[in-house]
Please model this.
Amino acid sequence: MIVADIIQQQLGQSSFIRRMFEEGIRLKAERGEANVFDFTLGNPGEDPPAGVTASFQEVARRNAPGSHGYMPNAGYPRTRAVVAERLAHATGVPFGVGNVLMTIGCAGAMNSVLKAMLNPGDEVIVPAPFFPDYRFYIGNFGGKMALVETRGDFSLDVAAIEAAITPRTRAILLNSPNNPTGVIYSEATLRELEAVLQRADHPIVVVSDEPYTAIVYDGATCPLPASIISNCVITTSWSKKWGLAGERIGYLAVSPKVADADALFAAAVFSSRVLGFINAPAVWQHVVAAAPDESPDVEAYQEKRDLLCDGLAGFGYELRKPQGAFYVFPKTPIPDDVAFTRLLQEEGVLAVPGSGFGRAGYMRLSLTVPLDTVARSLPAFARTLEKSGRPGQP
Ligand SMILES: Cc1ncc(COP(=O)(O)O)c(C=O)c1O
Model:
């Protein structure tokens, strides 16, 4: 076998979203684009905010001499200073240039910090449901994912997290607002978690995965773990916030309150280099430094959220409106989520079964489709509910 056993195995585990993606291509070819409602991908449909595009054009126009070469592996000091200044303001923690590493998206940041921290066999606690690639990021460095179920409303079960801590626990992975549930973890919950970490008999780092913090609804604010938790490393990107997923620009920030922050930071910079990232894209480091305060069009997502959630709830689907991020995670009307998403597919709707996120009996619908797609898809959701033998309200 030319492919490594572990990769062969992981390809099998990651097949849900991949299969749905391939199904989508097949269905679109068969029925035409307009008749397929593809809710599977978390790829922002909106273009970047105008200020970001303008800054990108200005960077290209100026094309300053030397602006495409190698740089310090952590990134341009000016960009890191801009990021650190905003982080310090948002969290009240004195982040500085020496805490910020520019990365290849959020995935690059996560892999760099996990490589920096994990010895083979070390454990990383992950609340479920979870972003499926966490399993592979942790596995890349011989770590083991320890899943801990969240409560019925998908809030963190801090007592269960504490019970899952072992001498091998090195990190806890938090993602708020959450993909796939849309839940924002409350300040009280984060305080409870900080108390658990303070009681632990060895250092445990919270890796706070934050690509969705700018996408929150109904005027909510998203408490930032780094403002409460001392041993915190932030990983994030502009992929979701600005619709720049293809440009691969993100960062990692080690809180100055982490015990041994400098050592962990140096390890993360080294890890990023030897993972082959070397440095984050030069052009986009210039762009984010020049337009750091641009915001996404949250209202557009909120309109789609309300249309989809109110429509589905009206038919009898059980769901919680997401507080943030851009996914809806309803219960499937029958317990077999894979069977239910197959029924949806017959009606031209593509959804990802909750099993792919470690929670059977649910499905994930991404709000990155156009509003018109949401509106036109609703009758198909109603028909599928009837077909499943679990009709909702008349
Ligand atoms: C929760 C979460 N973390 C990390 C990532 C990876 O983000 P990026 O594309 O910036 O690497 C994603 C992308 O979907 C995500 O949903």
Q: What stands out?
A: Residues 42, 105-107, 131, 175, 179, 209, 211, 237, 239, 245, 250 surround pyridoxal-5'-phosphate (CB under 6 Å).
